[in-house]
Specification:
It is a single chain. By secondary structure, the protein is an alpha+beta fold. The protein contains six helices and eight strands, in the order ααββββαβαβαββα. It has helices at about 5-10, 15-20, 60-75, 95-100, 115-120, 150-160; strands spanning about 20-25, 30-35, 40, 50-55, 80-85, 110, 130-135, 140-145. A hairpin with a 4-residue loop joins strand 2 (about 30-35) and strand 3. It is globular and about 35 Å long.
Length: about 180
């Protein structure tokens, strides 16, 4: 991670401080595609806890936050927690691929919502927005705005969402 990315992360609040936690409720019907155009929903990841982030390459706070997701993705993998960064860029993978390359992001999948329909599904009019879905498929937390997710408290919370990692073939998205 470059000096600029580290500096931006240091300016962001700890995600644990801004995370609104609540009683489990049904997960919203989030629909997106992967970089190959394959349609996916949250149900395609049974047994995994999910951190779903709506973002865009043109969104300054999103750009500041994304390196923290890239940093924690490998740390969370053994516990079965997946990071699903869903870009709302209109040009889809054409915008995200070079962005990932220029920011040295290699640990996150390219996921897309080019129509931005998940903003309405997740009841927001701004990004970044992050929701946490437990391994039972229930929405349990939400954070509106950018934060640093690569902190000890946030990692401990996310790693506690699954007691045991699910089978490696279940719902895995290669990066």
């Amino acid at each position: 991670m470059g000096k600029s990315a580290r500096a931006q992360l240091n300016d962001l609040p700890d995600a644990t401080d801004g995370l609104e936690k609540f009683a489990p409720q049904p997960a919203p019907p989030v629909v997106f595609t992967d970089a190959h155009g394959r349609r996916l929903t949250l149900r395609d990841f049974p047994g995994h806890a999910l951190v779903v982030n709506l973002w865009a390459t043109w969104c300054g706070p999103c750009v500041a936050e994304l390196p923290s997701f890239a940093a924690i993705a490998p740390q969370l993998q053994p516990s079965g927690v997946l990071i699903l960064p869903i870009s709302i860029d209109l040009s889809g993978a054409t915008a995200v691929r070079p962005f990932y390359t220029s920011h040295n992001i290699t640990t996150l999948p390219i996921l897309l919502d080019q129509n931005g329909t998940n903003m309405a599904v997740l009841d927001t009019d701004s990004i970044p927005l992050t929701v946490v879905i437990n391994s039972s498929g229930h929405l349990i937390a939400r954070l509106d705005g950018a934060a640093n997710w690569n902190t000890p408290g946030t990692l401990a919370f996310l790693q506690s969402l699954d007691a045991a990692p699910p089978p490696s073939h279940s719902g895995f998205i290669p990066v």
